[in-house]
C-alpha cells in the first residue's frame, strides 16, 4: 500500500479546543478516504499553541529553532495539509497568521490544502473565502474546493446531517483532499546529505 504524509495545523489556543476537534475529524475523514484509494496516511498534528514563543522568536530573529523548525520541515515535505484556525476579529487568529508568515514562501507551493475554521456563529463562515483561501492561494497551494466552518451549534448532538450538515461537509472535504493526494506522486523527502556532492563529482575535473 502506498504511503502519504498528512500534516494538520491546529490554531486553537485553548485546551481542549473545538479547532483541534474539527482538525481531527477532517484528518480522520481524509485518512479514511485515502485508505479507499489504497493509500496509508501518516498524520502529524502541529499544535500552534505549543509553538507560540518560537514563532515570536523567529519573527524577531529570522531563525527557527527546535520544534518550530521541525514543524516547518514537516510542512515542506507534506503530501497534503489541513489548516484549521479559530476566528478572531472576523479573520484568522493572529498566531495562525504569524506561523504562516515565518514559513518559507515556497513551502506549500503546489501542495494540496484543505482550509477550515471554527467560530461562535455561522456569520463568521465568510472567513473561509475572504481570508483563508486568499492566504493559501498567495502561497501557491492547491486549495480544495470544499472548505469547512464549524460554529458552536454545529457540535450539537440533535438532528441528522440534514439539520446539522457539518458531518457531510467534513466527509466531502476529506474526499476532495484524498482525491488530490492519491492522484499525485509522493512528495520527495530530501535526506540530510542529499545536497552533498560525491567524491566522484568533486574529483570529476581532476
List its traits:
globular, NAD(P)H-dep_FMN_reductase, FMN, 7 helices, 39% helix, Rossmann fold, oxidoreductase
Structure description:
Its EC number is 1.5.1.38. Pfam families: FMN_red. GO terms for molecular function: FMN reductase (NADPH) activity. This protein has 206 residues and is α/β, with parallel strands linked by helices. It has a single domain, classed as Rossmann fold. Helices cover 39% and strands 21% of the residues. Strands 1, 2, 3, 4, 5, 6 and 7 form a seven-stranded mixed β-sheet that branches. A hairpin with a 2-residue loop joins strand 3 and strand 4. The N and C termini lie far apart (46 Å). About 3% of the residues have low confidence.
Question: Uncertain runs with pLDDT below 50, 5 residues or more?
Answer: 189-195
CATH topology: Rossmann fold
Beta fraction: 15-25%
Shape type: globular
Computed Rg: 18 Å
Top-tier CATH class: Alpha Beta
The helix content is 25-40%
Give the name of the CATH superfamily: Flavodoxin domain
Q: Any chance you could write out the topology, listing elements then pairs?
A:
Blueprint: E1 2-10, H1 18-36, E2 39-47, H2 52-61, H3 66-76, E3 80-88, E4 91-92, H4 94-101, E5 112-119, H5 127-138, E6 142-143, E7 148-151, H6 166-182, H7 199-202
Parallel strand pairs: 1-2, 1-3, 3-5, 5-6, 5-7
Antiparallel strand pairs: 3-4
Helix pairs in contact: 1-6, 2-4
